[in-house]
# Entry
Amino acid sequence: MVCQIEVYPIEMEKETKREGRVLIAGDLFPTEENVAYFKNGDAERLFGVELCRLFAGTDLAVCNLEGVLSDTPGVCRKTGPVKVAPSSAVEAYRRLGIHLCLLANNHVTDGGAEGVLDTMRTLDAAGICHIGAGKDAGSISHTLIREVGGLRIGFYNVAETMYNRPGKTSPGVWLYDEWLVCREISVLKQQCDYLVVAYHGGIEKYPYPSPETRKRFRRMAESGADLIVAQHTHCIGASETHHSSCLMYGQGDFLLKNFLPGRTDSGLLLELSVSDGKVSVARHLVRSFENRFVRYADNQDLALWDALSLRLDDDAFLAEAFRTFCDRELILYLTAFKSPSKWVRLLRRISPTAYRKWLLEKAFRPDDLLFALHTLRSEQNRETAVTGLEHLLESK
# Structure
C-alpha cells in the first residue's frame, strides 16, 4: 500500500484551535566546496530564498547533522569518508533556523571521542538542541518532546551499528536494540500526541527496504511510532502505511556530498502542520548541485518516487530487486574477506574488469565462500568474527 501521509486525527485536551509547523530535513553537512559559506552563515547562498522562507517562523526545525563540528578532532579508525568541519560551520545551521540536530548516525564519531564531545559543545554554545549521542553509553539522550500547536510532538533518534558504538567511558550514539527500542517507543508514545522516529540506517543507494529494515520499521510502528523516517540511504525511497503509521524508507539528503549524481542529489523536506488537533505531513522536493548548494525544486512532481511505493506489495519483485542489488555490491564484501597482493592491487588499477573477473571466478574456493556465508549469516559466528577482528586491529 502506498503511504498516505495526509492527516492523522489526534484527540486534544483543549478545544482551543491552535496551529504550528515542524520541518524535518535529511542529512546536512558541509563539503570542501561550501564550508566557507557554512562558516560565514550564508544561509541564503547555501539554501536559497525559498527554503530560507520555509524555515523562517517554524516552531521546530530538525536535521540530521551528518558529521563532526570540531577544531581539534581526534582520530577514528574506519573505512570510507571522514566528515569533519570546523566548529564555526555551525553558523549556517543557526542562521537557517535549525532548533534540533539528530546525532545518532555513522559519522558523528568520525573525529573520535574528542570530535563527539566538541560537536555537542558546539551545538550547545549555538543554542541548538541535540539528541542521539552522548559522552558514554549511560548518558545518551535520544528523545525530545516539544509542544507545537497545542500538541506534544515527540522525536526518537536511533542508528544502526557502524563505527559509532559507545563504551562505558567513551562517546557514541544510541544504537538499535529491537527489544529496548520498541519498549521505549511504547512508553514515549504515552507521553506525546505524535511520535517521529528518525532512524539512521537502511541500505545506501537502495530505494526499497531490505527485509530486516522492513521488519524493524513495522515493529516500531506497532509499538506506537506515527512516522518513521530512514535518513541514511542518501536517496528518496519507497513508503507505506502499517498499523496506521507512515513508514518512509528513504528521505534522501538535504545538503551533503553527492557521490552518485542522479540518485543522491534529491531529497525530501518533511513539513508537519498542526491544526485543530490534527497533524498533516507535506513533502517538499529539494535538489542539490555542485556539491555546494541546495534549492527548493522547481518541479514538485513526486510521481517518480511514489511509483516505487506501488511495488511494496510485490514480494517477488522486492526479493529479486534486493538480490540484484546485493549481487552488484558483492565485490566490496569479497574484497574485505581477501586482502589482495600487490600484484592483484596493480591489476585492479590497470584493469578493473579483469580484477572483477578474478575476484568473482578465481580468488575463492567454494569452501571459502561457504565459510564467509556461514560467518555472516550466523549471529553467533558474526559476533565472534567481529570481536576477533576488533581485537586484532587493537594490536596493530
Observations:
- Residues 101 and 301 are 28 Å apart (CA to CA).
- The radius of gyration is 22 Å.
